[in-house]
């Protein structure tokens, strides 16, 4: 399971980099517009995942700003990582 989470962190990082690169140097032929839409969708969905993260894990863990940022950037993979921490306790 740890390998899956690490691979997920890597793939999510690459996705964020491509989407942010598109903001600086937009791709041609409509690909850039699709990536703008995907960036918006990803930002909203990860925001919802932070809400879920707060709802599920704040009673069991003391959460810091770093924890919320990790949940926002890596989404479900961060949630799985924190879930493992709680199950190990």
What would you say this structure looks like, in words?
It is a single chain. The protein has 89 residues and is an all-alpha fold. The protein contains four helices and no strands. The two termini are 17 Å apart. 8% of the residues are buried.
Give a short overview:
Helix content is 82%, strand content 0%.
Descriptive labels:
mainly alpha; 4 helices
The largest sheet, given as strand count, sense and whether it forms a barrel, is:
none
Average pLDDT reading: 92
Secondary structure category: mainly alpha
The portion of residues forming beta strands comes to under 5%
Q: Count of helices?
A: 4
| Secondary-structure element series | HHHH
Rg over CA atoms:
15 Å
Helix content: over 70%
Label the overall shape: elongated
The tally of beta strands, per DSSP, is: 0
Distance between the termini: 17 Å
What are the segments in which pLDDT stays under 50 over at least 5 consecutive residues?
A: none
SSE blueprint and pairings:
Elements (H helix, E strand, L loop, with lengths): L1 H23 L6 H27 L7 H10 L1 H13 L1
Helix pairs in contact: 1-2, 1-4, 2-3, 2-4, 3-4
């Amino acid at each position: 399971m740890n390998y899956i989470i690490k691979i997920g962190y890597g793939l999510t990082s690459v996705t964020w980099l491509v989407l942010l690169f598109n903001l600086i140097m937009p791709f041609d032929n409509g690909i850039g517009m699709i990536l703008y839409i995907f960036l918006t969708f990803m930002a909203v969905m990860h925001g919802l995942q932070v809400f879920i993260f707060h709802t599920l894990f704040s009673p069991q863990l003391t959460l810091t700003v770093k924890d919320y940022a990790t949940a926002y950037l890596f989404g479900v993979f961060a949630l799985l990582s924190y879930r493992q921490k709680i199950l190990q306790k």
